[in-house]
Amino acid sequence: MPWLRWYGPGVPHEVNVPDIPVTRLLDDAAERFPRRPALHFFGRTVRYRELREAADRFAAGLHRLGVQPGDRVALILPNCPQYVVAFFGILRRGAIAVPHNPLYTAEEMGHQLADCDARVAVVLDRSYATLRAARAMAPLDHVIVASLIDDLPWTKRLLLRLPLLQTQRRRARLTADVPNDPGLVPYAEMLRPPNRRVRPFRVDPSRHLATISYTGGTEGRPKGAMLTHRNLVANACQHHAWDTEVREGREVTLAVLPLFHSFGQTAALIAPLMRAGAIVLLPRFDPDQLIKAIHRYKITMFPGVPTLYDQVLDDPRLRRAAVTRIRAFICGAFAVSPRTIERIRALGGHKLVQCYGQTEASPALTANPIGPEARSWTVGVPLPSTDAVIVDPDEPTRVLPYGEPGELVVRGPQVFAGYWRSPLATARVLSKGWLRTGDIAVMEPDGFISVLERRRDMIKVSGFSVFPTEVEDVLRRHPAVHECAVTGAPDERRGERVIAHVVEHPAYPFSAEELRRHCEKYLAHYKVPAEFRPCLDLPRNPLGKVIRRRLREPRPAVGRAARPIG
User: Fold this and answer.
1) What is the tens place of the pLDDT at every residue in 280-303?
2) Could you read off the pLDDT of 5-55 as tens digits, one per residue?
3) pLDDT for residue 157
């Protein structure tokens, strides 16, 4: 099968991927720059030597709990130092890190915990109530409970604990009471010095899994994408090779993208750490904290999504000098608008890098060159050591000529090992190392790729994946819903919004508010439909399958069937 080999001026065609585990990246950074800042968190700085020591102690703590190499350990944390320490501690032990969204409902969390057979979970105290409910579906041996307060500077911890100086609302945002349930382990206990040295597990980077990252694949419930140590190291090396202006030990990356997401995991954690750069951790999007972080820490790398950039640019406190200092805005998840590009350029930022990837590829596959050769209306060209072709979706062995739209198929060292315990799903997308992305794209003669349409049904809300069947399964539980189908609609602020098309049950009238409350019980907030549209029936093909494309097409209002109820 032919493939492309063009990467732009100064960028190598191939990248040499060392045969090392992910934890070796932390070891190398700590050896070269032991006193350089690794993490910044609300005024507290963790240096590389401290970070490596904490990860080693966490690994020893897992050994005391009986965690064995290959065991799955769930991470249910926002962006905080505990996440980074636990992530590298899990990998040091030879176990597999399984990140989860802390905003999941108990049902969503329980499904994933049961699917991966997690033995241990590391959870923020504020998310423990949800995990406690989820344990009915997925029994856990131990739950390690952390609090954001524990990683604040001592002065801020003192202020929060003084009754006269703290406010109840302010403290409640950072901590929550946790009942004394069996199997609970304080995070601090995991960091106590071990009684004896624990021999690190020798990892085979090509064979041993580093993470299981849940994604929906092309359809149905989220599936666990198995990523090896080599996959993650390869993608970090590709990032490193692509950025020819990188400065070892001097970059400062803003980590507001969630680290439990594959984009944040690579672009805001593993790749910056490989360069021994500093990472500024923000546990959630807070305009005040984000603007302060950009100015205070002199951010040089800003991975994000278009809606995040728009919100930052809307803030009048953002200074032009701070924007010009940012070497690159690494943009992914969905297409950035020309208006956003122009707004960044107007403030002196000239290096917005539009990228493309999938969780199954660790996740980066393509990127625009950093510099004047960039074409931000495209997703750029394949990363070094990445092959890409456009094929006929119905006949994937037939490669299409330049300029003709078809399915994007890729191959490279970052492509995953398959879906966890899903051989049939794996076979549908992976063959001889080639990954079928399910996305329709077109390639220009000089190698630039434009993605015309994402996976057929998946919806992207603020960069998060929403899978229609998951929302439909919840809707069908309501007695008022006879039939339903879920689609996405363009949204200026969030990229897309979720639309539910509902055929009402003749014996049970309902309201949008009732359906919304029903969905909120079982779905994360970004998956809850923004609008409920009643319809008389759903368009179907001869086999009875709903034609979602027809539902997305604008139709003239015809009586009650076209009247939205959102």
Assistant:
1) 999 988 999 999 999 999 999 999
2) 334 445 667 888 999 999 999 999 999 999 999 999 999 999 999 999 999
3) 57
CB 70 within 8 A of CB 94: yes
DSSP string of 168-222, one letter each residue: HHHHHTT-------TTEEEHHHHTSPPSSPPPPP---TTTSEEEEEEE-TTSSS-
C-alpha–C-alpha distance, residues 76 and 73, integer Å: 10
Residue type, 387: D
- The answer to whether 516 and 510 are in contact (CB under 8 A) is no
Mean pLDDT of 549-560: 59
Q: What is the pLDDT of residues 363-400, one digit of tens each?
A: 999 999 887 778 888 999 999 999 999 999 889 999 99
* DSSP characters over 503-518: EE-TT----HHHHHHH
Beta bridge partners of 304: 331
* Tally of CB atoms within 10 A around 249: 14
Range 115-127 average pLDDT: 95
Alpha carbon distance 168, 156 (integer Å): 15
Cβ neighbour number for residue 328 with a 10 Å cutoff: 23
- For residue 363, say if its preceding peptide bond is cis, omega within 30 degrees of 0: yes
Q: How far is CA 20 from CA 25, 210, 234, 408, in A?
A: 8, 12, 10, 30
| Domain boundaries 459-562, corresponding CATH code | 3.30.300.30
- The pLDDT tens digits for 177-198 are 777 888 899 999 999 988 777 7
Buried b / exposed e over 9-27, threshold 16 CB at 10 Å, is eebeeebebeeebbbbbbb
Q: Tokens 């079982």: give the residue.
A: 522
End-to-end CA distance of the chain: 49
Buried b (16+ CB within 10 A) or exposed e, 251-279: bbbbbbbbbbbbbbbbbbbbbbbbbbbbb
| Structure tokens given for 301 | 């790398």
Dist. CA 112–CA 130, nearest whole Å = 13
Considering the entire predicted model, what is its pTM?
0.82
Residue 280 is predicted with a pLDDT of 98
Q: Is 30 helix (H, G, I), strand (E, B) or coil?
A: helix
Stated as kind and residue range, the H or E segment containing 272 is helix 271-274
For domain 42-196, say whether CATH 3.40.50.980 is its number.
yes
Residue 562 CB partners (closer than 8 Å, separation 6+): 533, 535, 555, 556
Whether the pLDDT of residue 329 is over 50: the answer is yes
| 271-282 pLDDT, tens digit each | 999 999 999 999
350-375 burial: b if 16+ Cβ within 10 Å, else e: bbbbbbbbbbbbbbbbbbbbbeeebb
Where are the alpha helices (H) located in 416-467, listed in sequence order? 423-429
Residue 303: DSSP 8-state: E
The CATH 3.40.50.980 domain(s) of the chain lie at 42-196
- Tell me which range, 174-178, 427-431, 505-509, 539-543, is most confidently predicted by mean pLDDT: 427-431
Lowest mean pLDDT among 116-125, 204-213, 367-376: 367-376
* Domain ranges in the chain with CATH number 3.30.300.30: 459-562
